[in-house]
Amino acid sequence: MHELDADTVLALARELGHDWIDRETATRIATGAAAAIRAVLEAEQGSAVGASPPASFIDELSALAGGAT
Amino acid sequence: MSEFAAWTVTETVAAVAARRVSVRELVAATLQRARQWQPELNAFVALFADAALAAAARADEQMQAGESLPALHGVPLAHKDLFYRAGRASGCGTTARRPAAQVTSTLLSRLDAAGAIEVGTLHMCEYALGPTGHNAWLGDCHNPWRVEYAPGGSSSGSGAAVGARIVPLSLGSDTGGSIRLPASLCGVIGLKPTFGMLSRHGMLPLSPSLDTPGICARSAADIALVLGVLAGADADDPTTARAPRPAIATLVPVNDSKPLGGLRIGTAAGLHGVSIDPAVKTALDDSLTQLSMLGAAIVRVEVPDLPQLSDLSRVLVYVEAAAVHDEQLRMHASGYSPQVRIRAATGLAIPPQVYQRALALRTPALREFVSTVLAACDVLHLPTLPIAGPTLADTAVGGGAPMWQKIAAMVPCTAPFNYLGLPALSMPCGFTANGVPTGFQLVARPYGEATLLRVAQAYEPFSAPLRRAPSPPA
Asked: Sheet containing B117-122: which strands, arranged edge to edge?
């Protein structure tokens, strides 16, 4: 996973055509995105059940459906 | 307050059918209440007075002609300003010029077919990105119980208009708590159905993996009635293909003194560091005592790490919101307020593989939650907002770190259930010391809405915010 800082976000923003992103905005985006990335890595490390393809989510909801209790 | 204002949808339908009131009288009174409250609440974005009165006149003519009446004949409603109607531009929480919609949302179409009358569109946070009710373009929405307090968001007007008794029911959308938060703070019932139960066709997207339309109302029977109108597969939204049509179109009042007999309600043994305000905790504990007296067995259950599920949910919101807003941000970034454009752009910096991992963890997390928590209980009971309702000033832009802490403290108990796709309902259960309502949240198995509504209906007579109304402005 690459380092995420304001310079990285600024370079990415230029590449993607988001010229409105200035250094202050890039710093805020980098902070929020880095926290999000960290959360996913921590969740993966803490997951005892592994991952599965996202396409199965709606199927899983149907399979786990409960009637009126 | 007029007699009509206190009526629920069910009572309104009965009064119209019995000719105790004309639809025109109902709509005129609704418009009058909306205008009376507007300077204090700012709950409406637009009122369609002429169109609503014309529709009311047609509805009265249908009555006089003896035509058979649909389920919501003549009921005046208003909805969050992100449900499209063909030929009309939905503001979606901005004043930016938006094109007129090409389609009418499936949910509005179904309400139209059921005879409901749309009197206006309701306030929302900019592009549904925000939990408080602030809006830099439209002005802030206010809480009907104490106007200096936040009504919650992003379906701010949906909570405020129902809480103020302007309309008996409204539609909103919920991506991380956007129906349940305003419902809790405005003292009404808020239902986020199972992901895929209601069509999102013709609704502004924020995060398509999580976006769920839902309902604010003052009665579980009303929600059951309207859910029956709205639910069902829609060819224009493939996520609804597997949704069963709920057998809950009518929720019959129960005269049993133990209406929740045989039901297990789980209370979380711990919330993984989520701090609960003492007054909220007292209200939650009192509600559990009452639910026990209604016959439910209260059981302690271990819940997974809710803040972690909330974080995973946020990853999906960030990345999908960035994709939804990508072109508009590149071309017209100045059309967004500074806070919202940062939230909408954060996902640009999250690598695709991180997003894929957050998505891939979702199904196992759902399976684990259902096989552990919802095996030990039929319904999980936990806070909607763990904090007392904040003021608009405390959560305004420029508030620095304390403001961000307050905002972050609003969603850790709601966002996990968007990630898990489970149905969740916020039920008002009291007031905190500041005079703002608070509520508990109930979560059930997928498509377990009938169970949630059964509990809500049993608890209704004991809900202080449902039993009395906020004072209307002079």
From this structure: B44-47, B117-122, B76-80
Any A CB within 8 A of B183 CB: no
Write down the residue that tokens 């119209």 correspond to.
B16
Average pLDDT of the residues of chain B: 94
Closest partner CB to B349 (pick from A19, A29, A44): A29
Q: Give residues with Cβ within 8 angstroms of B300, minimum separation 6.
A: B266, B267, B268, B269
User: Residue B45: helix, strand or coil by DSSP?
Assistant: strand
Pairing of strands B264-268, B297-301: parallel
Cα Dmax for chain A: 55
CB distance B274 to B386 below 8 Å: yes
Tens digits of residue pLDDT in B340-355 = 999 999 999 999 999 9
Distances (CA, A) of B401 to A37, B343, B365, B386, B405: 21, 16, 31, 19, 6
Active site residue B80: yes
**Can you give the pTM of this predicted structure?**
0.96
CB B171 within 8 A of CB B198: no
Asked if B304 reaches chain A (Cβ–Cβ under 8 Å), the answer is no
> Among B310, B354, B370, B377, which would you mutate to test the A interface (most chain A Cβ atoms within 10 Å of its Cβ)?
B354
The four Cα atoms B101, B102, B107, B111 give a dihedral, to 10 degrees, of: 90
Structural tokens at position B376: 């030990």
Give ipTM to 2 decimals: 0.92
User: Does position B249 have pLDDT exceeding 50, yes or no?
Assistant: no
